[in-house]
Specification:
About 35% of the residues are buried. The protein is about 50% helix and about 15% strand. Strands 4-5-3-6 form a four-stranded antiparallel sheet, sandwiched between helices. A three-stranded antiparallel sheet has the order 7-8-9. Strands 10-11-12 form a three-stranded antiparallel sheet. The protein has three domains: about 130 residues, no CATH class; about 240 residues, no CATH class; about 160 residues. The protein is of the alpha+beta class and about 550 residues long. It is globular, with a radius of gyration of 25 Å. It starts with 9 loop residues before the first helix and ends with a helix. Keywords: Chloroplast, Nucleotidyltransferase, Plastid, RNA-directed DNA polymerase, Transferase.
Amino acid sequence: MENQKPKSKEGWNAISWSAIELYIQKLQKRIYSATKNGDIKLVRSLQSIVINSHQAKLLATRWVTQNNTGKKLAGIDGIKYLTPSKRFELARSLKIPSKSRPLRKIWISNFSDKQKTLLLKQGCGKGPGKTKYPLSIPTLFDKANQTLLKLALEPEWEAKFEPNSYGLRPGRNCHDAMKQIYLTIFKKPKYVLKAEIQTCFDQINHEKLLKKLNYKGKIHKQIKHWLKSGIFNKKCFAEMENSTPDLNCDISSLLVNIALNDLETLVKELVICMPLRYSTGVRTGKIMGLRDRNSSLSLIKYAGDFVVLHENKEVIFKCKEVISNWLVDIGLKLSNAQLSHTLEGTKADLADPEFSKTPGFDFLGFTVRQFKKKYRGLNGIDTKITPAKDKQKKHLEKIAKIVRQCHMASQEEIIFKLNLIIAKWALYYGTSDANTVGILKKMDYLLYLKLRRWGKRKTKSSKSSLNKYWKKIETKKFVFATEINGKLVKLHCYSDFARSLRNDYVKVKSETSPFNGDETYWASRLRKECLYESNSIGAIKSAKRKMKSL
C-alpha cells in the first residue's frame, strides 16, 4: 500500500458497484426479516455470508478509501490514499477476526461548538495549547474491517432498536427527534427531564456489552479486540450539527446505540407499574388503564442526549433515579440532568432547587417552549421550536469574523465563503419555527448590516456600495449579487431555507428501517427530502469547489 493518490482507476472502476450494493442490500434485508421473525440461526448464517463475501469486502474498501468523510485522517500506518491495485489487496486481506492495530491519537481543533462542549462534559480535557481535542484514528485496515462487520450486524440491531432512538442510525436525523418531541407535547404541557451521558464510552463495562451483544466465535473475538484497543472515540457522542454523520465506516456508533438500547423500555415498564390517575377530562381522578399509562410517557433519545416527558412530576423524578442506576450498572453516568416544565412550573416547582426557573428546554441546538394562547393554539397553548439563542449568537460571530477577514476580498469570494456557512446553518435550523417567529428575517437583516459596512469600506460611500454590490432580482430589491462570465452569483438568504417542522416536515415512521424492504416508502421519503435539499446541498458543494479554486 502506498501513501499516494491513485493514478489509474480503470480496473477499480470496471466493477459494477450498483450490482454489488444490490446484492449486499438483499442480504441485509434478509437479516432484518429473520431477526423480526426470531430466526437467530438464519441471522447468524446470513451474517457469516456477508462477512466472508468478496463483494462486501470490496464495498467496505470503497467506503473507507473513497466515500468516507474521514478518509484524509491517516492512522498509525500513515496511509491516506491507495492505488486501485492496492485497494484490491486491502479487500482481499480483510478478515474477521483480526488483531487490531494501535490507534493513532491526534489533537484537532475543528470540532463544532456542540462537539467541543460534549467532549469537555465527558471529561475529555483540552490538549496542547488549550484549543485542541483528542481523536483516536484507526488504521485503514481496521476502518475497512469495522465497516465490513457493520454491514453484517447493523440490520439485526435495526430490527431490535427502540422506536424513539434517532441518533447515529440510517434513515433518521435530528429533525425526526424534534418532530417527535412536538407531537408529544403539542396537546398538553408536560414536565421534562433533559440529560446527557457524562462518562466517556471507553469506560463502559466491556463484559456487559459483550453479553448484551450475545455473539460467539469470530464476531465475539473481533469486538473484544476492538474494545480493548479503545475503539470508542470521544467523538461518539458529539452531535453532528449542521451536517450528516458518516454512518458507514465507524462501528462504534452502532455499539453506542446497542449499549443504550432498552432505556425506553426501562422507563415504560416503570410507568406501567405506577398507579397513575387521569388529571383532566371526564375521567379525572380515575386510575389510568394499562395502555394509557404506557403512552403517557415518552423518552426521545439522540445518541448520548435524551429527554423524558410526562405530565406527572413524580414520574419524572422516579425516571431520573431509575435511569441513573441503570447507567451506573453498565459503567456510565448521568450528567447535566435538568428538570423543567414546557409551559410554566407551579410555585412548588420553582421552589425546588433541582427545578429550572425558566420554562422549556434546549435539545440538539433547539429551544422547545410553550406559551399560553387565548385565541390561537390547541387547548390554549402554542408550541414553539426555535434555534437556541447561543447557536444564533455563535453563528453571527462566525459570519462577522469571515466578513472582517475578507476586507480585501472580491465580492465573488465573500459570497462563496458566506454561502457555505449560511446554507449549512439554515438547512439545519431552518426546519423549525424560526421563520414564524422572525428569526430568519432577523439573521438576514443582521447579515445585510455587516455587508453594507463591508461595501462602504470598499467604496467609501453607502450609496455607491448599494449601487455596486446590491441588485434588484425579481421581487427582491436588495440582493447581494454579482455577475461572473454572464452568470448571476448571489448570496443565500436565511429565509430561503424556511420549512415548518410542524406542518412541512414528515417524521420517519417509528417502527420502520431502510432494511425492512419497504422500497416504496423509502423512495418516496428520499424523493421529498431531495426536493427540499437538492438546491441547498448543490449550493454547498458548488461553494466548496469554488473555494478550492480561489
